[in-house]
Amino acid sequence: MAPQHVAAMLGICALWAGNMIAIREAVVAIPPLMAVALRYAVMLPVCLPHMRWLPGPPADGGTPSRMTLVLLAGLVGGGLHFGLGGVAFAAARNLSALAIAGQLGVPFSLLLAILLQGERIQWRRALGIALAFGGVALLVFDPRIAQERLALWLTVAASFCWALSTLWLRRLSGTHVLNLMGWQAAVSLPVLLAASLLLEPGALGRLAATPLSAMGWVVYSALGASLVGHAGMSWMLQRYPVSVITPLTLPTPVFAIALTTAVYRTPVTPLMALGAVLTLTGVAIIALRTARKAGR
Fold it and tell me: Which of 109, 144, 156 is nearest to 273 (CA)?
């Protein structure tokens, strides 16, 4: 791989890690469901020129239709995933714990593939699943971050939503990433606005008083982390096999933990450190073995 492409991949990891700061700063100033809705309001106009209706069945010939998969993945992987995540970030103080729990999307995705698609795995990926879940389980029993348990469970639920949407998106290979993200914004925005109006009374009326800095973080999350990050990843995957790209995404949670710890001066307890090592090791095993299998 060309050195500039390695640097680009590390830049994408840094953008995704920075999204944790962006979401936290946004939901401190704006109620979380409204903040996520604003994120999609920023994304939608940018993606609109790329949005196309996708007729017919998916490439595997199964059901439901491609467009149904797009809408389901958009709602579950968009509104539900980021909505739960926004509420989790608003409830949390120690974002490093959430960065660790957020990695469960990878083992959840593999478990769903086993249960719903008959994926067969060997002992190495089974070990990876056990390590990933075991590491997050340790966090729940850490008395130093007991106040984060609600946020941790919300993050686990958000990770499951991401994994489920990923299962559907795999059946839509070849679809332009901005098309998918546009539909995600289109279906998530009205749901999040309705939820905010119901659960966050007065949120819409208080937007005029929102600091520009908070809106800047919303824009970063929408355009920098999501559109630039995912479009860049799509561009890289068109040029290199997944077995080459996957290892270069693994620094993301390490960057996220280091960044949130440095910015918010939150403690990393010995139990949290052990949980992080176990979870990230498990995720690395799953990701690398899956990428090797896909590259055969």
Answer: 144
> Which one, of 211, 175, 189, lies nearest residue 66 by Cα?
175
User: What b/e sequence results for 160-189 when a residue is b if at least 16 CB atoms lie within 10 Å of its CB, and e otherwise?
Assistant: bbbbbbbbbbbbbeebebbbbbbbbbbbbb
Q: Does 252 have pLDDT greater than 80?
A: yes
User: In sequence order, what are the residues at sequence separation of 6 or more whose Cβ sits closer than 8 angstroms to the Cβ of residue 216?
Assistant: none
Given the structure tokens 């995957």, which residue do they identify? 237
Contact between 21 and 13 (Cβ < 8 Å): no
* pTM, 2 dp: 0.94
**Angstrom distance (rounded) from CA 181 to CA 273:** 34
Domain ranges of the chain: 3-294
Of 17, 162, 13, give the one whose Cα is nearest residue 78.
Answer: 162
Answer whether residue 296 shows pLDDT above 60: no
